[in-house]
Each structure stands twice: as C-alpha cells, then as structure tokens.
Amino acid sequence: MSNSERFTRTWHVSAGRGYDTAWGEFTGDRMRAHGRAMALEGGPYWVAYELETGPDHVTRALRVAVDGPGHRARAVELLRDEEGRWSVDGRERRDLDGALDCDLGLCPLTNTMPVRRHGLHLARQAGPGRRFLMAWVSVPDLAVVASEQTYTPLGGGRVRYASGSFRSDVAFDGDGLVRDYPGLAEELAAGPAAGAGG
C-alpha cells in the first residue's frame, strides 16, 4: 500500500500582491513539489520553483526561475548533499553549514518542512521554540543568504514564526501546510489531487 498523499494549494500572497500555487506529494517523511507564483510588488515578476526533500523533510534540492521585472530572467539551484554541504549554482556555500531547510521568499510552502519534521502543527499546547538556520532565497533577485529563524508551537495548529524583528502566528492545517500567515499569505483553495477523476 502506498503511503503517498498528493496536495494542491493556492495562496493569496498579500506581501507581494500576488498569488502562489503549489502542487506536491508527501511520501512518508519526504516531499516533492513544484509551484508557480506571480507578484506585482517590485514587479510584475513570475516565479517557477521545484522542491525535493529527502528523509525527515530535509532539503535535497531547490530550483527557482524568475521572469521579470521587465525582460530580465534569472535562475538559481540549491543542492544539499548527504553530508549536509550546500552548493548554490555549483559553488560550495560553507555559510549554510548546519541548515536543513531552504526557505523561498514569499513562498508559504517552504514553511512546511520544519513544521512537519518536528510535528509543531500537531502540538496541543504551547511549547518551547526551536531555532533553525535556513538557506533563504529572496525574490525576485534570487540572492541566497543564511537566515536564523525560530518556530514556536502555540497549540491548535498555530506556530509562531520569528526572524529578526519580524514575527507572525501562522495557522497550519493537519498536513503542515500554511492556512493563514498574517503579514504574508492566506490559503484560497485546496484543490483535488492531480488525476482525481470526476
């Protein structure tokens, strides 16, 4: 019996005045997904991304392409090997040592990995925060920097995200996918799995 579960989510990304749709699949403690997004803030620009994790939802690869603003186009590839070493477009990035996850700017999907790994969305009551180092990719310029972030379970499917001076109490569904991220995005629809007939 397969333990895979497909999902589709669309978010209104208020922070970018745009939208993001992700199509993906959970298989045990792994996730594969791809998505398309557009934003008017700082644009318009369009984003296409592909994400793959290994066991425990640890990032293996993130590939992102951006078209715009204007006629500009750019792309970046992040890879994390079995020893935990990161590379960006083939160049080693020692400043990302210790990071388990990528974090794509304005993309609610990439909050899922640390939340599912530690079951933070399933906590019944508030608990201690967990600190993470992330390989953060900004859009639309696709700069990659190390980002320190804290996720604190609040109970009831809510997790407090904090990085620098920014914080937000994010609501997750039972699959660990963002429902409502005040200041960033809100889920619009959960569609049927690809290929589901009717």
State the end-to-end CA separation. Answer: 23 Å
The unreliable regions are 194-198
* Main sheet: strands, sense, barrel: 15 strands, mixed
Radius of gyration: 16 Å
Report the principal-axis shape.
globular
Q: Tell me the helix content.
A: under 10%
Number of strands: 15
Structural class: mainly beta
Helical region count?
A: 1
How much of the polypeptide forms β-strand, as a percent range?
A: over 45%
**How are the strands of the largest sheet arranged?**
8-7-6-5-4-3-2-1-15-14-13-12-11-10-9
Could you explain the architecture of this structure?
This protein has one helix and 15 strands; from the N terminus they run E-E-E-E-E-E-E-E-E-H-E-E-E-E-E-E. The chain has a 15-stranded mixed β-sheet with strand order 8-7-6-5-4-3-2-1-15-14-13-12-11-10-9, covered by helices on one side. It starts with a strand and ends in an 8-residue tail after the last strand. By secondary structure, the protein is mostly beta strands. The chain is globular and about 50 Å long. Strand 1 (4-13) and strand 2 (18-27) form a beta hairpin.
